[in-house]
Amino acid sequence: MATTPAGDAGAETADRYDWQAAMATADGLALHLNALSEGKLRADADGRIVCEHHEDWVVIRGDDAELVSGKHREPGYSVFTTVGQLAGDGGLAHLFGRWHTLGERPSCRLVTTAGLAPGPAQGLEKAAAYLRDLRLAGQDLLPAGSDHEPAISGFARALRQHPRDLPSSWQAPGGDSAQAAMDQAGQVCRFLSELCIQHGKPSRAHVGHAAPTMYCAPVLDRLGHDDPALAVAVWEAVHGLFRARMRAAGPTPQGALPAVLAYQPGTLPAGTVGERELAARIVTVSDIDVAVRAALAHPRGFLPLPPAPRVTRLAVKMAAGCCTDNSIERAEQLRLDHQRYWRARVSGDPGARTSQQRLRRELLRISDQATAAVSPVPGATWGADLWRGCKPASRRCLAAGGRRTWTPGCGWAVSAT
After folding, report:
1. pTM to 2 decimals?
2. Cα–Cα 20 to 30 A to 203, which of 147, 300, 331, 345?
């Protein structure tokens, strides 16, 4: 336990996957909030999240889809400083390739714990916001002489450093011609107009503590609840759902039943077959609604288990004195040892009962003296100090029937009878 391990990659990888599940959970709760009407889920709510398909997750509502890449960065690498880092470590190159493969139809989002440093990184974010405003206004995405042209061209150069994610048109012969460069610039502008960068999200060390307040409280307010404990229960319920779906796990409507008459021409819409195959990865707003209402109905089922209640007088007294759980467990064990000792002695020694009563009176006197010595202030917590004064050797001797006296300023004195 004292030797430093060579690495902790397994736990860190698991934490990062759990962080991605937490960010997908936040998106799912946002979908659920938007689908609520007067405290109930709207009948036409069709929002859903597909986990680990094309990207880390895909948010779908109606015919609209958003590809989301979640990137966790440690505090030592807490900011993106260059466009190249955003394209590589930030996953924008992969997002660009998926966006092109899907016909340039979905929007894209980068969710990360890192910030954006002043300079090229913030310049790309500003260029994306500028192009998005132009797209929403129906204007040309290649304005001449724009202040954002350096950021746009810099992002195109950064994309070329990741050829595996690029469309074939970028790698074909003649891809460096003036016309090809203009086409590529136009495609980059269209992609940036669909891109949103959400940075500064809670890290894996803090998201579990911050998420109930940040992401569950708005949903509970809409449902008419304000208990903080309920927010923790709701977060655990919905987050657990996304943890399972991120691993393509969890129950599905069809279970393990085979697909029967599922691929007959004209019997099903084209998208239904694909969603049936991805059922283990999909979280719908209905799934989230069920998880939320189950957590509200049975919050204790999703909260950490409370400690076992103290049922003996000894345990109750020590707990009132603020003794630790380990101290209480040891004291109860010593009490059992003391009882077993006297049970065996009384059964075979006629005079043992008298000795037991004498020892009991002595112990009550010692307890009274010790309590007065360690608790001079009324209402002070004296349990830990009282227990700390009883050394293990003294307790063993006492359990065997020894005599112990308390002298203020000198401590305990134990002698065998």
Report:
1. 0.72
2. 300
